[in-house]
Amino acid sequence: HLAMAWFAAFVISGAMTMAVCAYELFKRDLRPKFSLNFRRTGALFPGIWHFLMMSNLIGTGPLAINHLTTLFVGAQLGPAQAAVLQLARQLSTGVSGPTRLLGPLLLPDFSRLSGRGDWTGLRDLVVQQLKVAAIVVVVGGAILFAVLPILIEQVFGAPLLDHIWLFRLLIMAALINILGFALHHALFSANKGGTALLIQIAAMAVYGVIMLTGIWVIGLNAVGLGMIGFAITSRGLSVLIGRRLLKKRINRAKKGDDLP
């Protein structure tokens, strides 16, 4: 019954999203413009197919990591350890869940700024997002880590306290992801979806190395360390590459303004 309820919740959630999307298409009179003719649609909405492909590939990466890791842990360490991993992952996913909604909300602002060539404004918006997220991460993370033992004992049971470090590591990775939740969207708005995908692949490689080399030494905690490596690589490279990209485009825009 629980599995059926879970399945129904996912189906209803997806159906509601598609229904709202269809409603908005009709309401805004966009349906006649969008067709299954790829060339015609691509001409009307330049870059749409590249955006869809890159965004879906980037979204597939974390899903593949989660599912493949669960199967690997179950096969190598047993179903009990896989179950523990899933419980810890549910908590960390709940921590970072709201940012999955906030990121796309900033994408229209990023797109408008990049479309106008206002790279200084885009930089300021990203910096503001990082500052606000940093405050949330520090304050929220301190509270969460303080109550974590009580939370685990009350929600999952006292035996799960033996795996508290797995919970801590996964939550730490989630907090790092929250810190830069809008960075990939900023790269997309700057027409750098391919760069964002390469960053994702690099982060997955770091995760794989840490997890596969450490799981026989420190057990499930290697998954948590791998997720921290994934988060640091993903967010760190996004900041470094994005900062260099914005600096170049801001300087280019200034030179253009200086021309007579």
**End-to-end distance:** 72 Å
The portion of residues assigned to helices is over 70%
Order of helices and strands: HHHHHHHHH
Overall number of strands:
0
Note down, in words, how this protein is organized.
By secondary structure, the chain is an all-alpha fold. It has nine helices and no strands. The longest helix has 38 residues. The protein is globular. 24% of the residues are buried.
Features:
globular; 86% helix; single chain; 260 residues
Task: Note the topology.
Blueprint: H1 2-27, H2 38-44, H3 48-77, H4 79-115, H5 119-155, H6 164-179, H7 183-189, H8 193-218, H9 221-258
What is shown here, in short?
The chain is 86% helix and 0% strand. The protein has helices at 2-27, 38-44, 48-77, 79-115, 119-155, 164-179, 183-189, 193-218, 221-258. The protein is globular, with a radius of gyration of 21 Å.
